[in-house]
Design a protein that fits this description.
single chain, globular, alpha/beta, 7 strands, Rossmann fold, 251 residues, 17% strand
């Protein structure tokens, strides 16, 4: 009997076993990014700028060149790389603590300048690597190690909405928020990430895709319950959809 391969590991993944906790969505997003790099034939000319956080070793999981930036500085490092080597495709992979806290200024100004880089932003509403502290994106009422009674607006402020903050900046070429809790979501997320890379390839400006993600370990939930919590709570606080699209129907 003849067999046809329908699904295999992308060439742009290194094959190293992921070190993320069970139920974490980093692995799904890594797979999608690698598939897109393969499809766009970018493997030999792509650089990932990894963050400080759970995905600090992301460069080891991809079979592309990569480096690690100081905490929050990935957009600045990526900007320097892209300006020095405009022929390369540069993307940053950042969590909410890295991008929406210490790295807010770098991200906002890279977006405002329309830097030709792409950012994949993982929002799990908590600091994952360092013990589950409150993050800029932590929801009101959500308990963390530094907000044991729940986040309160009068003390800690409100959750930061990255897409809503930068959507009016003229340098932004593609901006979307998505999730990967269902097969349909995974397909939508892949489409958004591909458009984000195409925005860079076409020289249209800065692109960012925010992916709502679970953190079962620090949420204190099973992977299954964490998925439901994301669906019931995070999607209400952080509306899904496309906020900016200057790419159009690019193939």
């Amino acid at each position: 009997m003849d067999y046809k391969v329908a699904y295999k590991m992308p060439r742009s993944l290194s094959g190293k076993q992921f070190t993320y906790c069970p139920g974490c969505h980093h692995g799904i997003v890594h797979r999608l990014i690698a598939e897109i790099i393969d499809e766009l034939n970018l493997r030999e000319k792509t650089i990932i700028v990894a963050p400080v956080g759970c995905s600090v070793f992301a460069y080891e999981f991809f079979d592309v060149d990569g480096t690690v930036a100081p905490h929050g500085r990935a957009p600045a490092v990526a900007t320097g790389m892209k300006r020095a080597r405009p022929d390369l495709t540069i993307f940053t992979y950042q969590g909410d603590g890295d991008l929406a806290a210490i790295g807010t200024a770098e991200m906002i100004h890279a977006a405002n300048r329309g830097e030709l880089i792409t950012t994949i932003f993982i929002n799990n509403a908590i600091y994952g690597m360092t013990g589950g502290q409150m993050a800029p994106t932590t929801l009101l009422g959500m308990k963390t190690t530094t907000s044991p009674y729940g986040r309160k607006a009068e003390k800690e402020g409100y959750p930061v909405h990255v897409c809503e903050i930068i959507k009016e900046l003229q340098g932004v070429a593609f901006l979307a928020r998505t999730k990967v809790t269902t097969p349909r979501d995974v397909m939508t997320t892949k489409k958004y990430i591909k458009k984000a890379f195409q925005a860079q390839l076409k020289g249209l400006g800065y692109s960012l895709v925010e992916v709502l993600s679970t953190c079962p370990t620090n949420w204190g939930l099973s992977p299954e319950k964490a998925m439901k919590w994301l669906e019931d709570n995070m999607t209400e606080e952080f509306p899904l959809g496309v906020y900016v699209d200057k790419v159009g129907d690019a193939k």
